[in-house]
Amino acid sequence: RTKLAILISGRGSNMQALIEACAQPGFPAEIALVVSNRPDAGGLDRAKAAGLPTAVVDHAGYETREAFEAVLTDLIEAAGAQLVCLAGFMRLLTADFVNHWRDRLINIHPSLLPAFPGLHTHERAIEAGVKLHGCTVHFVRAEMDNGPIIGQAAVPVLPGDTPDTLGARVLAAEHQLYPACVKLVASGKARVRGDVVKTDAKVDGLLINP
Ligand code: GAR
């Protein structure tokens, strides 16, 4: 089974979805470590409740991004993790870190990339009047919210949606999409070829109804 390190900054609901997937018999991955850059992240309690090893690397305690990331890399390597999953990890990572973990570092983003990189994606989707929104799991490259797409899940934008109602619909889709994509990568069914992911699996595009 592929060993995962999960990096979080907050409540950890995507991490929780991965914990539940890894508990299923036959799932091709297991969680070796959960790391938070925030000591107060709610996800840490959820990880501990699941009996997982956790660590806090508080970015505020480091002079430079490089020093912070060196500790992250040491911990991830010491845990023997082969795949690093960003799950609501809200620190930008340097090109050196991203290149060190090239094709072994994946992220979930709450929009259908390349639309709406960055923050406040649900608000921006409503303002733009798009009729489909969703989430993306992708291999991480040095440019923010960019990299070979492993899978996407789309949800409708409904009349009267607020950023909260739309965000909740997208979050439910995230909880389906992230485990599906980790499964593809961990089982070797999704591989990077140049700048795209090749897979013949059926789950790389999900349409999820409200
Ligand atoms: C998720 O919606 C995730 O897609 C988003 O933060 C939320 C974390 O929730 N990530 C980003 O915006 C990354 N830039 P969670 O802690 O409950 O998984």
Automatic annotation (TrEMBL):
EC number: 2.1.2.2
Entry keywords, A to Z: Purine biosynthesis, Transferase
MF GO annotations: phosphoribosylglycinamide formyltransferase activity
UniProt KW Ubl conjugation keyword: no
Catalytic activity: N(1)-(5-phospho-beta-D-ribosyl)glycinamide + (6R)-10-formyltetrahydrofolate = N(2)-formyl-N(1)-(5-phospho-beta-D-ribosyl)glycinamide + (6S)-5,6,7,8-tetrahydrofolate + H(+)
Top EC class for this record: transferase
Role description: Catalyzes the transfer of a formyl group from 10-formyltetrahydrofolate to 5-phospho-ribosyl-glycinamide (GAR), producing 5-phospho-ribosyl-N-formylglycinamide (FGAR) and tetrahydrofolate.
Name assigned to this protein: Phosphoribosylglycinamide formyltransferase
Species annotation: Hyphobacterium vulgare
Gene expressing this chain: purN
